[in-house]
Structures are given as C-alpha cells and as structure tokens.
Design a protein that fits this description.
The structure is a single chain. With 83 residues, this protein is α+β, with helices and mostly antiparallel strands. 28% of the residues lie in helices and 33% in strands. The chain contains 2 helices and 3 strands, in the order ββαβα. The protein has a 3-stranded antiparallel sheet with strand order 2-1-3, sandwiched between helices. It is globular, with a radius of gyration of 15 Å. 10% of the residues are buried.
C-alpha cells in the first residue's frame, strides 16, 4: 500500500518556556500552495500577543505529524560570526 504524503496545518499552543503543549489539527491538504494560503489566513486571525502558532508539516499521517511537532528540539548553535 502506497502512503500519500499530505500537508497538515496545526494550531500549536506553547507554554511560557516555548515548549509545545498542545497541537490541534486545523486542516489537511494535498498541495502546498493551498496549505500555505490556509495557514496565512489563520495566522491573520490570531492575536499578536497570543502564544499560539500555526504550522505546516509534510508527513504521511496526522499522528506522525503531531509527534514531530511535539518533540522538544534544541536551539540551533550560533556560530561566532552569526552573533
């Protein structure tokens, strides 16, 4: 069986420390262009002070996408010339 990858748009709730607390699926798209426009529209609806974000992720299914978003990733290492 062939798994078809999709673009998932999630609404992320972050804690005070920046770690993702919750990820709610908003919609799913087969084409990036549609997902991008949808995410832009949703971001425009959010309050600037809100600790929430709208993210697009390309994955095989909703569960894998949510797992990736919930992972705590280390901040990138800054090089001396990037400071």
């Amino acid at each position: 069986m062939l798994n078809i990858m999709s673009y998932f748009v999630f609404h992320l709730e972050k804690g005070t420390n920046g770690v993702v607390r919750d990820a709610d699926l908003l919609d799913q798209f087969k084409e990036y262009k549609q997902a991008k426009q949808y995410a832009r529209d949703k971001r425009a609806e959010l309050d600037v002070k809100d600790a929430a974000e709208v993210k697009i992720i390309f994955e095989e299914n909703e569960e894998l996408a949510k797992q990736k978003l919930m992972q705590n990733r280390d901040a990138p290492i800054l090089r001396e010339w990037e400071k």
